[in-house]
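Hey, can you fold this?
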Amino acid sequence: LADRFEQLVQLVTMIGDKGELPIAIALSNVVTSNQMDELARVFVTLFDAKHLLSPLLWNMFYREVEVSDCMQTLFRGNSLGSKIMAFCFKIYGATFLQGLLEPLIQEMIDNADGVSFEVDPARMESAEVLEENQQNLAQITQRVFNAIVSSADRFPPQLRSMCHCLYQVLCKRFPQSIQNNIGAVGTVLFLRFINPAIVSPYEMGIVE
C-alpha cells in the first residue's frame, strides 16, 4: 500500500521536459470549486515534501496571471492559484505573523478603555475628540508599519520564495512593468497575508 501511495505521489508531482506539471494541471482543470481548498492543501503538502514547491507555484501562478488583463485583479477570486497562495500563507506564515502583530494588537486591547482609534464622527462617543483619535490612529499605524518593515529578516523562507516566484511570473507576463510588478507582489502580500490578521486578529489566531 505504501508503494502504491508513493507511485501516486510520483505521478501527481511529475514534471515535464519544459517544467510543466501535466497531472497536477489536469486535476486542477476538473476539480469543482468546493474541492479547491482540499486540492490546494494536497498539492502544497505533496510538492513541498518532494522539494518541488517552486515548480508548483510557478505553474499555478502563471495560469492565474496568464488570463489576467491587469495586475489589479490578480488573486482576488477563488481560483486554485489563490487557494494555494492562501494555504502557503497559513502554514508557513502563521508563527511569523503572530510574533509580528500580537504585541501591538494585545497592547491595543489592554488599553482599549483609555484610547480610541475611531475617526468616524458618526460613531464616536460624545466625550471623544476627533483630532486625538486621528493622532492615535496615525501613531499605531506607524508602529505597525515600522514593525512590518523591520521584520524583513525574519520573513519565512518559504514565503520569500513564493513572493520571488510570483515576481518572476509577473515579469514574464508584464515585461515592461518591472516596478509595477514589485508593487503587485507587495499588494498581494498585504491584502492576502497581513491585512486579514489586522482586521480579524481573533479569527486568525493572532490573539486569544
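Oh, and this one too while you're at it.
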Amino acid sequence: MAQIARGKASDHSGEVVLLPNADFDISKSIFETLTSPLTRMLISDKVGVVLFWSDKAEQKIRNEFSVVPRAPRFDQPLVDFMNTECDFAVEHADGSFMDHLKFCYEYSFAHFPERSPRVLLLHSIMGVGSNFFPMHRSKVPALQALVTEYEFSQISIFPTLLRLLQGGILLDELATLSGARLQELETFSCHRVLDNEWVTVSSDVFWDQLNYQLIHLLDFLPAASWQRHMDDGFLATFTVLHSILEKT
C-alpha cells in the first residue's frame, strides 16, 4: 500500500518493525522448487517475516493511499482462466501469490498509466523466478485469446527478462552503455522460458518490459534499513535498473 500511495520505492526505517513469521512454510510458497538448503534458509529469513507498522505511519499511509485512483476490477474471463486453468494457490512472501499480482497490477495502473496493467497481473503466468509454472505450455493459445498482442508480447518474455536481470550479465552490459547507445537498440530477441520459443520484440516493447520489471521489483525490496541491506540482490538490481532507465 505504501509503495502505491507514494509511487516510489521507500525505506521505511523508523516506521516499521520486522519479526519472523512462525507460520511461514517455504514448501507452500513459490520458492518450494528451491533445492539448496542454504538458499532455502536465506529466502525463508528474507520473506518469512511479519511487518508491524507504527500507528502514525499506518494512518499516514492510509491517508495517502485514499487519494490514489482505484484500479478497475480484474476482467472476469482472465480471473476464470487463472482460477480454473492455472495454479496460483501458493504463498508469496508475507501473503498469497494473488496479493503479489494485485500489488503489481494496482501500482502499474496508478503509476504506469500509458501501458496495460494486465501485463503485471499476468506476469508470472508463464513462469515464476523460482521455476514454478502456474500454466502449462499447452494453454498458451488460450492465454493469447484473452489478451492483446502487445500484452502477450510482454507477458511471454517477462520470465526470461527476470532471469536475465537476476543473472546480472544483461544488466551489467546495459549499465556500461550511454543513453545515446541505449537509444540505438532496435530489437531484442530471447527464448521464452515456458516453451523455449525464440521471440523477437521491438525496442519499445523491450523498454516497456524493463519498466514492468522495475515495478515488479518493488514488491521484493527490504521494507526498512536499506543501509544494512546493501547486499540485498533485489535492492541492487532495482538500483542499477533504475539508473539505466533514467538514461533512456
